[in-house]
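[step 3/7] fold_predict: job queued, chain A
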Amino acid sequence: MRPTDMPDSEPPALAAHGEFLAALAQQTLAGRRQAYRRIGPQRGPALVLLHGLMDNSAGFAPLLAALEAEHALDRDIIAPDWRGHGESEATPGAYWFPHYLADLETLLDTLGVAEPVVLIGHSMGGQVASLYAGARPERVAGLVALDSLNVPDSDPNDSPARYRDWLDTVTGRASQDPRVYASVADFAARLARRYPELDNAALFYLARAWLRPTGDGRQCLGIDPAHHRRMPYGFRAAEACALWRDVQCPVLCLDGGRSQATLFIDAETRAARRACFADIEHRTLAHCGHMLHVQDAPAVAERLHAFLRRIDART
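[step 4/7] structure written:
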């Protein structure tokens, strides 16, 4: 069922982990409100779940429900909302990518997580996780990258346009108003155009997780509009590869075979990036798109459970 024939009422709810969704907490980090969810016994390597751009920690609830069905959830689970996402406070001014790595480290320190963790990141969260695992290899016992490593390299010739666009938004010449939608169903229909492989249950789950009421009957994205700015610099593949070569832990890379991310770079380049990691297992879920952990949480959980057993055997 596609955008033109979305249901008038919401479909049956997607299976999600209720305890995790209810476990929202907050800490003040460097004077900024940091939201996160934490469940489970605080022993053994913690699983730290890192969401992507536009998303928030609630996006992992379907995967955790599937992991629980695999009897693989008796462990410390931590999932932050990145700054300016979900319930975390926005940052005045610009968002710079290295700050996400600092936010991750500060949260782990604040929560007293001293033992090496397993980082599980989707999209932008996987980029943060993979770079952090190279910068702080002693703090990471395992790395899971969910459709995360296929970011196109930045083109230096695009720099003039990038800087002009960034200057226009940061100085107020271009609009930075929140993106507003008529209803949850309206936004779900828009998501269907972006992720045509998702069924209605997944589309409505993401719509409810990402949206916040505006007070006038409409809905807006629960992120700081500044995240929509085009930054003056792009992804630097050579720098990322240098960090990935310093990763010392086992790596599981799961990609969606129908993900638009696979169109950004060719198969040879994708393979060369994965080869930067000394110990990597790569799998493609052929039927899945970019939101693979929501589209088919049981399939992702099955592969993740096997990977976690391997990590547990090493610790």
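[step 5/7] annotate
The mean pLDDT is 91.
The chain is about 35% helix and 15% strand.
exit 0
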